[in-house]
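Q: Two folds, back to back.
A: First:
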Amino acid sequence: MKNKRYLFLILSLTIFACNDFPFKSCTKEFRYIGITFVDKVGQPRAVKNFKVINKRTAEQIFSSSHGALKGLYIVIDDSSVEKVRSSGDELMVSALDSVNNTTKSVTVKVKGGRGACHIEKISGPEQVELE
């Protein structure tokens, strides 16, 4: 009888410790991680060829939403939460400056994963200054 209790306890702990627990309570909000491109005086600037690549998988990340403001671009949102690991992935964000035709690249580290409710930023800039 004791063995059955220990087995039940171990199985219960395993289920509750799993990130993919099916009864996880998530909010209904839709989160995104954005980045703003600005000129030297801090004014938002439009860019061309905005691209986000997961460095680990070399897969391009496409956002289901777009920035509502000039210069604001969506790096990743909750529609792509399963495309990054729960331990975090580095995303290479690059864009072509529409004024001087130079490419600017930065790295943003985010986490998500199959069991995550929302995408979360670990590190990286919120704003990128163009020359």
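A: Second:
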Amino acid sequence: MRVARAVGGDDLRARLTTAAGSGEPWARRHAGYVLWLLDRPDAPDTVHVWQTWLASDAGG
């Protein structure tokens, strides 16, 4: 996640947005989560945050 935050630009966001709309559930979840984190730079990238995100409407 640190790398995504360090290099996060329009190109990365466009690719993640495409993946978030994918027919592949794994790609959708992970891309959506990374986009969510990029929009919240103060949010930690922890297992707890990932599990909470998955359980939310955003995660699924």
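Q: And?
A: DSSP finds four helices and no strands in the chain.
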